[in-house]
Protein 1
Amino acid sequence: MRRLYVTLLTACALAGLPAGAQESFDAFRERVNKDFDNFAATKNKEFADFRDKLNREYADFVEKNWEAFDMLQGKPRPKDEEPRPPVVYPDEDKGKPIEDEQKPIEEVIPVVKPKPQPQPVVPIEEDTKPRPVEQYFAFKFFNTDLKVRLDDEARFRLAGCDERDIARAWKMLSGQQYNSVINDCLRLRSEHKLCDWAYLLMLDELSKQFLGAGTNEAVLFTGFIYCQSGYKMRLASAGDKLYLLYASDYLIYEKNYWNVDGEKFYALDCDRSQIYICGASFPQEKALSLQVATEQALASAPTRQRKLHSTGGVDVVVSTNGNLMKFYDAYPTSMVGDDFGTRWAMYANTPLSSRARDMLYPVLKKSVDGKTSAAAAGILLNFVQTAFVYEYDDKVWGHDRAFFPDETLYYPYCDCEDRSILFSRLVRDLLGLDVVLIYYPGHLATAVCFPDAVQGDYILIGGKRYTICDPTYIGAPVGATMPGMNNVSAKAILLD
């Protein structure tokens, strides 16, 4: 900002600068620098004063406004119809032309677009007092080494868990001493490409490791940084225990919640049937999103290598990041609004890890090079159909569980939804074609929008033709719908 400011004013000065006036110009430039410093100091003070005012008002509200709320039961994972087992494409049909047939579609579920991540209500001013040595607190997050500016003096203890104790602690945390750690946490969010869910878990880990797991101090510290980062949260208590509630527009399956002013608030670790919730809110606060739009930049921990072989002749050895697998294991499955089809879109829109891409994509690219888009899609389709072992989620996990693309490469078994999610990722990344998921009761497939008409079953969406490709119809070509699928009740799920 300073450089731009000075450059602009310098250019203006040079335009009218007489010959031999270098000395007066140097004086002008020095004055410009001082003017900018004064301007920046004024703005920083205005920001700091505004934020101090907001935090004082918030703390005053914390001291007075708590109300009892009953816990509401979370929505169970959707009970789908009996999953359709894989079907093998008949040998006698191989090589025969497929009839061209438009299939009906009941509903089109729109793209779930990620929103910008929350930001502090104003820039957070750092403490400018010089320190002999900057002290850092190092902590681990999914085996990733992180550090923030915190020293032993920043540790604090709550006198108790009543409203006045929490309000006093909030005012203390609002001092300049903790500004650096907020900015450091936001920097880590950016550097490690952390989604909202990962950011909340990171703050929770930082607080537990700095102030002690299970302590009220750790809960309050997490809540404070989370709030100052722009997220919507509420403090709650029951007896002598403090809790953090986070708001989300996503309905998280099997997760109990509290309805506060018409919004769902969830807790990381609270199972109390009734708690007292503080209604204090912060300006411009935003609810947590559960989308994972970028690869989470966690420390590399290569998983065991897995050999994959397709009947079409694709042989590849692949591995992924074990730390990423641990993060995905902690990810809560959810839906947007009341449409459970959106959950599959969130998995499908998550990119494949760089490690998996580096091992898998060169082999697949070599297999599809020089092929038409339909032939290339057929090779990828055969790879997903035949290189993986099918098994029901209920048998493996005890419940329905969708996989991110990396998880399908990592775990020994997968089902129709996992295959369709992975296939949609491969086609978009390697062929650059639009793909939609097709949900039939009890089954998930895909359809691809090819640049030229491809013979076979297809659907029309917005005037575009999408040809059916089913990763669970073993050996089936592009354009073949698995037997028994009821298109009258099928839904198309648009992907990003």
Protein 2
Amino acid sequence: LWQSSWLKMFGVPSQPVAQPLRSDSRFKDEDWDNLFLFDFVKQSYLIASRHIQHAVASVDGLPEESQKKVEFFTRQYVDALSPSNFALTNPQVLRETLASGGQNLLKGLNNLLADMEKGGGNLHISMTDEKAFQLGRNVATTPGKVVYQTDLMQLIQFQPTTRDAYRRPLVIVPPWINKYYILDLRESNSFIKWALDQGHTVFVVSWVNPAARLAQMGFEDYMKQGPLAALDAVGKATGERQVNFIGYCLGGTLLGATLGFLSEKGQLDRVRSATYFVSLLDFSAPGELGVFIDEAQVDNLEKKMNERGFLEGSEMATTFNLLRANDLVWSFVINNYLMGKDPFPFDLLYWNSDATRMPARMHSFYLRNMYLKNLLGVPGGITLEGVPIDLSKVTVPSYFISTAEDHI
């Protein structure tokens, strides 16, 4: 690296020793390549971080789960130490500091204090200008009406926009980790609007944001008061006994379990088809989320949940953000606190920040029986309302949309 850098400094063409990945946005500023010092710092960091991660990945004798954890948290460590995250080693921040006489750092401090206040003493990084959005005005814009509700959800009906409509309704079960309107951000990228334009009558489950009074609601309660209740309500609203189902993320896990329940009850004919958006039924390979889920961590989480009756939505959001820390954590640290800029209005990140809580009993059941023990795929592995769930008996035509990464 020294040889290459000195050659470049004296005007001799020289190939860099280490280059960031094309997808790495941390070093997009031209000064990272054009100025000797910053180019040297960047390449030194890339060499060191890759060496550390390679060394950690080459350790022999570690159990597989421990290996995954070591690799994950090592990546968090080297990401945190990137020169782009510090004012003195980020050329963009230095330029802004000189140009503004340090006003960017003062504004950044105010942004940091505001985020600490918003998080009640914990850092809650603002990802977007939350004041720029209003539900029903510029997000969740498709007109619909609530036609039924339980303690856990409201069922929203959307009318098709076509002259002729399909007889069989489409029922969407989203996750209760986030709000349903990821499927209806704005007209140009709304799945709900698209389905209506194809002639579908769409029903969407909108889950409640549970408080402590719902702490004892379990997974079976979500099944009864969610998709099962929606089936009956849709039948009353449309006169149709049979529906097409879509389950999204955790909603797809619930949908699979519900179909297993209906199969045992002899009512599977009420569902014509099932589509799963990024949903886990087999939890044997949960990806990097698995590093947060083991017996000790679940025990600790249960203690915290039982104190207040729920898992706070922001805690779950932080876990997901760490899966892509450079994009969803450090880029905002640089923009908000070092550059002193307000976050850009972005509907997807507004939705991402609008997290919901999860009842303690339900979440404990979900983590233990699915992530830890992977019992959903075992015939009779879990029992809901006294009914053993056997997914192998579900004969509904099914379509699975799967992704390699959690990247909406």
